[in-house]
Structure formats: C-alpha cells, structure tokens
Amino acid sequence: MSSVCFYFQVHQPFRLRHYTVFDKTSHYFDEFKNASICRKVASKCYLPTNRLLLKLIRKFGGQFRVSFSVTGVLLEQFHKYCPEVISTFDALAQTGCVEFLAETYYHSLSYLYSRSEFADQILKHIAMIEQLFGLTPRVFRNTELIYNNDIARTIESMDRFDGILAEGADHVLGDQSPNFVYSPPDCEKTRLLLKNYRLSDDIAFRFSNRQWKEFPLMADKFARWINHVNGNGQVVNLFMDYETFGEHQWEDTGIFDFLSHLPYEVLKHPDNNFLTPSEVIERYPPMGVIDVPHIVSWADTERDLSAWLGNAMQSNALHEVYRLEGLVKQAHDEQLMADWRRLQTSDHFYYMCTKYFSDGDVHKYFNPYDSPYDSYINYMNVLSNLRKRCLETAAENTARSTA
Amino acid sequence: MKVFMLGWEFPPFISGGLGTACYGLTKAMSNMGMDVLFVLPRAVEASQTTHVRMLTPKPTAGGQELEYTFDELHNVRFLAIDSMLSPYTAPEQFKQRLDEVITLKRTAEHTRPEQIEQDAAGTHHYAGDMFTEVHRYANAAVKLAMEEDFDVVHAHDWMTYPAGIAVAAVTGRPLVVHVHSTEFDRSGEHVNQMIYDIERRGMHAADRIIAVSHLTRNIILSRYGVLGDKVEVVYNGVERNGDTRFIPRSGIAGDEKIVLFLGRITMQKGPEYFLMAAKKVLDEMENVKFVMAGSGDMMHRTIEMAAEMGIGQKVLFTGFLRGEDVERVYQMADLYVMPSVSEPFGIAPLEALNHDVPVLISKQSGVAEVLTHVLKVDFWDINEMANKIVAVLKYPPLQLTLREHGNFEVRRLRWQDAAEKCARVYSDIMVHV
C-alpha cells in the first residue's frame, strides 16, 4: 500500500511599513501592501487551487484527501481583505476529506523563547479553526517544521495531539526511510510524520526547472515514482507551501493541470490511496523511534535554524521582542498584545538573513526590504516604539491605581 | 605588453580618488608583468621624497622633466612633465593657482640673482589659462612619446585626453580613455562647455572607453553620443595593506560615537546633505560627533552652514588628512557616510570597510553596484539617512554584522581583476590595429 499524504502550508505575515526612528505612530503594519499581496495570492493561488481541490474531492467521491495548516495571522488578513477565501476553505472542511492542523497562531519561534507564549498561541489557533470550520485539529506542526525531541515531548504533554510533522532530513533519518510512521523518543501517544523531501521538492521547486533531468513532470510519471514506494514504504508525505500552486509555480507551467490529473494517476494503482495525517497515524503503526536531539526545519539547504538565527541582528531582534513579554502582559492592552504578537511572526527575522544576500532567491519572494540591514533597522525601530507604549501604559496603570 | 599611460599623482602626492585609482591600477599591471610608462603633470619642486629615485632630469623645450621609478613598481617608469595641471582645479581657479606659484618661486628666500633668474625661467612655459595648458601638455607628451616604444595609449580623465589623442595619432597606436568622472558628476547640470567638448572628443577618438561603473557608463551613453559596444565597465579595486595597526583613540570621550565623512568637500560629495542628516541625528541623540575629514572648494561654506544650523560644536573639520592620520580617523569612526550626489565609483567606502568601519553610501554612486553589505540611501533622503545613522549607532548588532560582512566582501574587489580586464581591452583593440 502506498498512501499519499498531502499537507499544504498557508501563511502570510503582517508586513511592517517603513518605520524610521523619527516615527511616533502606533500603526506599524503596511495595510496597503499586505492587502495587495493577500488579494494577489488569493487570486493566483488560494482561490483557484481551493476550487480545484473541491472539484477533485467531489469527483473522486472521497478518495482524494488533503490537509492544511492556515495560520491565524493569514486568517485575520482574509477577514480584512478577501473573506471569500475563508468560504472556500470552509467548503473544503465540510467535505469531510480535508484535515486542518494546528500550529502557533502567529507562525512564531515562540517555542525557543517562551513556552507559555507557545502554548497560548497554539490554543488560540485551535480555537479559531474550531470556530471557523467546526473541526478540531489533532495533528501539530511547528513553524517552518522546526522540530526536535523536546518539542515532541512538549506536544505529548499537552495531551491534545496524536501526531506531529517534521522534515525528513538526511542527517535525521540516516539510512531510514521517511516513508513510514515513527515515534519520537519517550512519547506514548504522539506519532511522527516525516516529509519525503525529494518527492515534495520535485513538485514545489523543480517542477518548472527546464535544466532538471526529469522535466517535464507529468502526473503519470510522478504516480509511477509513488508506486515505487510500494514494498519498501507505507506513506509518501508530500509537505509543501500552498503557494506552490500558482505563485512559486505559475499557472503557465501547467502546475494546475498536473494537480488535476494526479489523483487519477495515483488511484489507478489499486494499492494506492490518499490519506490525511490523522488517518495515516491511525492506519500505520510506528516503525521505530527517530531521535532528533538538535533542531531541524524545512528551511534552505541547511534544514536548521540558520534562516532565522544566522547572524547577530536576528538573534538580537528575537531576544528583544521576547524580552518585552512581561511588560506587554502587564499592560493588559489588547491592541498592544496583538501588535507584539504580530511582531513575533518568523518572517520578520527571515528578512534579516544575510546568508544568501548576494544571490538569495527564495528569501526575496515578497520580501519588502532591499537588504537584511534595512529590515533589522525597521524592525528595531518598531520595537522601540512598542516598548515605549508598554512603559507609558504601565505608568498610566500605576497612576490610575494609586489615584 | 607596453602601456603609455597618461595619469595623475602618485603617493604621497595624492589629492583624491583619481591618484589612488591610478596607483592601484598601475601597481597591479606592474605585478602582472606589463611595462608601464607613466606620464604625469608635476610642478617641479626642488626636492622630492625618498620614495622616488631620480634618473635623469631632462631639460627640454617642453619644460623641465623628471624621470624616476618607485622601488615597489618594477615595471613602471615615470615621466613628469612640468605642468600646473591638477585634476581637481576648476578653470577659474587655475589662473589663481598659477599666479600663486609664480609669486612663490620669484620671492623664494635666496639672494643670488642667477638663482632667481633660473627659477623664474622655469615658469615661463606655463600657459595662462587651463585649456591652453592642456594643449601645451599634449605637445610635451607627444615629444616624449616619440622617443618611446609602446603598444597602447591609456589616458585617465579629461585633461589627458588631448594628449592621448595626439600621442595615439602621431605613433599610430590604439587609444583607451578611462572615464573616472564626467563633467556632469563634477558640475551637475551647469557643465563647462569646453571641458565637455574635450571629454566628448576624447571619447569619440578613442578605440575603447573604460568606465568605472555602470552609472558612469550610462552617463557616457546618454550624454556623449557614444555607442554601447565601445564602453567597458571596469570597477576600481582597493589596496589591502595587510593588518591595520591598532592606534588607540585619543581626544574623544570613550562612549562618544563618531560619524565620518572623508573626501573632498565639494558639491559632488553632498556635504550639505551630511550636515542636514547630522542635525536630525543630533535631535535624536546627544553623544555623537560628526567628523568631516578633507578639504575642498566648499569647505568654508560648509563650516558656516554647520554654525548656522547650530551644530557647530558637534561637527569637527580636520582638513586634508594623509598617512597615519587617515588610519587614525578610520580607527575612531563608528560609521562612514558617503552622501555623494553623483559618484562615478567611490573608493573611500572600500577603504573604510578595509578598516572595519561600517558604511552608508548614496545609491547614486558606482560603488553601490558592487557592494551588498552596506547601507544605502538616496542622497536627498535626509530623513532616511538620519534614520540609518541612528540605527547603526544605537544597535550594536547592526554595526557588528555590517562590519564583518563588509570587510569580507571588500576582499573580492581587487586591482588585479581591474588590471586583467584592462589587459583584455588592450588585446581587443590591438588586434584591429
């Protein structure tokens, strides 16, 4: 049996507006830019792909199944800028063939800096998914698939999840295959699903690359590769950015045609099926324990934290934003809290990466800054203002309580 | 390959980037094994420094000339033509300078009448105005060239173009003109028509034009009517002189930040934008001083401007710096700013990076094309300039990251590569001869 497990990540940050040291306003986010990008991606990707998936789900009578994780910050943007997208996700949820996963509402690196924030953000995300789609997430994925044994243990202790996703990186797997279900060490209930990065990236990155020896990638060829897993694997985990469909791979590459033919080609082989992550966990017992003492992620070639913590600016910015946690929570101000949390989104630190600055492609997609230095300067100026607001609010509160 | 190069000063007699560029390029060519005959204008003085080994002073009809070599440049021979030409003097100032020099020579402190006669005689050949001097210089260069053997002529910036054209014509060798700056960079829209004409004639007479950046190349194509395939871009490099010695800071308080402007204080370099940004920075933070190291035709006006803006106490003017003083000022600086209005290339930021100083440069500069680990700003955007200056001074991680990456990046900007590119240009045009 070869089960294909699709997982799509759906996310956009609240990008900051240009903010100098002289700016005093508490409006930090570039509404216009965020709205344009949101609507553009909706029209090129979210809406057409959602509609295509709905069509395929209905056509194959329940045999075609997929999963998503949609971040809280993007759901907020849908509400503000293009609510029709939510109704397409809702339609997908109602088919019963689509699973929604949980993650941190703000797509943050909070696990590394504040366990309480981490937990609060997950609960907030679950609440929103339940409210919008009437579904309760049972599988967790951390921001950008950042994972290690400790994270698994933390998730296990939350007692809400059956499984967690991670990158099937070579240095994690050794000579084991990502095409099985595993267990993290010391975990009874939580199961581990590992991304098959070769097959996932064939679609997400190589699909339109004419220099690739497998170009052009047709649905039947890909289905044959899936079939090869039969006999030495149980599940093929295809985890990718949803923007693959229409944005990273434009419509004229044929990516939508590929997707629309794929279910047929895969299901042609009677041993194959499509499963959601929960269904995979239910069907296949774990093949063994995978030990991941050091953090892995699905970012860049290094598959580690260097995309967000590779230089002094990034670590300083992250340190400073989490240093404000106490102050922000004491202020008891909803707007302040929302602003502070939106500043935790991992993208802000991703923009400060100097790793590939000379030739960075992926980092530059939708990157509103000309240079990582500009993004750090901007971010720190905003943070300064936020800190000032916190202190002012704290002073007011003290004044009021002593009055 | 033998090159007849018409250029400018050599260390230690440098007054700006042009001299630095000529030195860097010539040294790299010498190291590659190319023979360079370097002709430069030099008002002859009685004594020279020890860097220079005098061969034979050749008094000729064109005026006294000197021939010398530098120990470190094995394949380079220098010929100095006695001339008042200097790359940074505007035509109006030329006459003034000329008068000054002649007066100086005539009132020198010796009493023997023959001496006075001799010295005065040495000035009789200077032309009264700059343009005539340019052509007299061309004459003298041709006379020198006729006694030499070489494969190609390479002329740096407009004053040498007539000499280049003349030498190339008389010897039948191909001509390369090297554009380090144009009249539009130096004078904005109020170009001097005669200088423009000389530049244009030089570019059209040349077999190939070398521009120091794409910025400059674009100006050449759009303003001088030159065709694209005639213009090559060869970026300047920077000299790496090994480890910079650590010289302790003195005279400035420990926690006081220093923002440095190092260059000629002239319109092209945007000194007024530097001051306006400084004012905004000082409104935001106190413990910072702005150092303007250099001299130039706008120096007095700039000093006045600083006083008028009420920041006179916070802006220090050092005058022109040389040698160890340059090292010292880089050691002290927390940030180097180049707010140039139009900078064909800009070697100074590279030197700053070499000295571990983070850099903020104007986007309207050629060097912005080759550097990524620097801060960039439009020269007129004072708000953003001040914003970036404050950020560097306020956030140590920013300074640290810029320093590390910038220092690393500047290592790949080598004169070696510039010299190799020039050699390729020479081969191209020699084939067609």
Helix count from the secondary structure assignment of chain B: 15
Mean pLDDT of chain B: 83
Q: How are helices and strands ordered from N to C of chain A? A: EHEHHEHHEHEHEEHHEHEHHHHHHH
The radius of gyration of chain A is 21 Å
| 3D shape of chain A | globular
The strand count of chain B comes to: 16
- Report the mean per-residue pLDDT of chain A as an integer: 94
CATH class of the largest domain in chain B: Alpha Beta
The major β-sheet of chain B equals:
10 strands, mixed
Précis, in short:
Chain A has 403 residues and is an alpha/beta fold. In chain A, 48% of the residues lie in helices and 10% in strands. Chain A contains 17 helices and nine strands.
Walk me through what this model shows.
The complex is a heterodimer of chains A (403) and B (433). Chain A is an alpha/beta fold and 403 residues long. Chain A has 2 domains: 2-283, 7-stranded beta/alpha barrel (Alpha-Beta Barrel); 306-398. Chain A contains 17 helices and 9 strands. In chain A, the strands form 2 sheets. In chain A, strands 1, 2, 3, 8 and 9 form a 5-stranded parallel sheet that branches. In chain A, strands 4-5-7-6 form a 4-stranded mixed sheet, with helices on one face. The N and C termini of chain A lie far apart (72 Å). Chain B is α/β, with parallel strands linked by helices. Chain B has 2 domains: 2-237 and 415-432, Rossmann fold (3-Layer(aba) Sandwich); 257-410, Glycogen Phosphorylase B (Rossmann fold, 3-Layer(aba) Sandwich), CATH 3.40.50.2000. Chain B has 15 helices and 16 strands. Chain B has helices at residues 17-31, 91-106, 113-121, 130-145, 161-171, 183-187, 193-205, 214-223, 271-284, 299-308, 324-332, 348-354, 382-394, 396-410, 415-432, and strands at residues 2-6, 35-41, 52-54, 58-60, 63-70, 76-81, 152-156, 175-179, 208-211, 231-233, 257-262, 288-293, 315-319, 335-338, 359-362, 375-377. In chain B, strands 1, 2, 3, 4, 5, 6, 7, 8, 9 and 10 form a 10-stranded mixed sheet that branches. In chain B, strands 13-12-11-14-15-16 form a 6-stranded parallel sheet, with helices on both faces.
